[in-house]
Design goal:
The chain is mainly alpha-helical and about 190 residues long. Helix content is about 55%, strand content about 5%.
């Protein structure tokens, strides 16, 4: 099987379920943003040594493929004619709660927030902050898609929670690597 199919040479692609759409469509943009997010998490992982954090990020990358496959599937194509789900996995409240639990555990180990934090730190923290902003864009693109085509609320909620997790994780990674956080304090200008 070859990687290239030439079926997208005229600016269209197939969604999961067979529908062809413009590569500029809101749906394609949304799962493209999710794919970009997944790649940035991979970059961050390459600068992290903590085994528990790496385990969590690997699970998140797996879950992002699940989110992306659902984003690539119109809601009317989620179920097959025989009544079974087209997708083998979907994001549920369990994955959202998992993020919350991980986030709470890391947050307890960080200093309380007093000011906004400037994105930065070491390489891992910086890439996690970049992933957070890409996650917010992915979330916005799903919200935008949902204004014209139904999107299951769980995948929007998952991305919302994931961006918070990435923020807390960036802070935690800075802490364990002894990298100081820089603050945006309007009184110190």
């Amino acid at each position: 099987m070859k990687i290239y199919t030439k079926t997208g040479d005229k600016g269209q692609t197939a969604l999961y379920g067979g529908t062809r759409v413009s590569k500029a469509s809101a749906r394609v943009d949304s799962y493209g943003n999710i794919d970009e997010l997944n790649s940035f998490i991979g970059i961050a992982k390459s600068h992290i040594e903590d085994e528990e954090v790496l385990r969590q990020l690997k699970k998140i990358q797996f879950d992002l493929f699940t989110v992306g496959s659902e984003a690539a599937t119109p809601v009317d194509k989620l179920m097959l004619a025989n009544g079974k789900s087209r997708l083998p996995l979907i994001i549920s409240d369990a994955e959202i709660e998992e993020l919350e639990n991980w986030m709470d555990a890391f947050d307890e180990k960080c200093e309380p927030l007093q000011y906004f934090i400037l994105p930065g730190g070491g390489k891992a923290a910086t890439f996690l902050h970049a992933a957070r902003t890409i996650c917010r864009r992915a979330e916005r693109s799903l919200v935008f898609l949902n204004e014209s085509e139904e999107v299951r609320p769980e995948i929007i909620k998952y991305l919302n929670r994931l961006s918070d997790y990435l923020f807390v994780l960036a802070r935690y990674i800075s802490k364990i690597n002894n990298e100081p956080e820089e603050y945006w304090n309007p009184n110190e200008r």
